[in-house]
Write a structure and sequence with these properties.
Number of domains: 1
Oligomer: single chain
Number of strands: 5
Shape: elongated
Helix content: 40-55%
Length: about 80
């Protein structure tokens, strides 16, 4: 895993994103190296990335799902209390 405070956009233009949203995308850089890229919309603002192996993507996605479940439960509890 590597944190890149700046990633060359030309490097990413050689491949299509595997997955993307309005600000984030995942690109395959090499055989088993992927980059989660924060694509800033503003001009002059550098894009940032974290590189991960394929296995790293699965491990990080599991952590993100756990965090999402925890946040969802917390929010659902607050909404439920507000409705009572």
């Amino acid at each position: 895993m590597q944190l890149l405070t700046t990633i060359d956009r030309a490097t990413l233009e050689r491949s299509a994103p595997l997955a993307e949203s309005n600000e984030f995308a995942i690109y395959q850089l090499r055989n088993d190296t992927f980059a989660l890229v924060h694509r800033h919309a503003g001009t002059g603002v550098e894009w940032q990335a974290i590189t991960l192996s394929g296995d790293g993507i699965f491990r990080v996605s599991e952590l993100m799902m756990r965090a999402a479940r925890s946040l969802y439960r917390e929010m659902a509890n607050e909404v439920s209390r507000a409705r009572k």
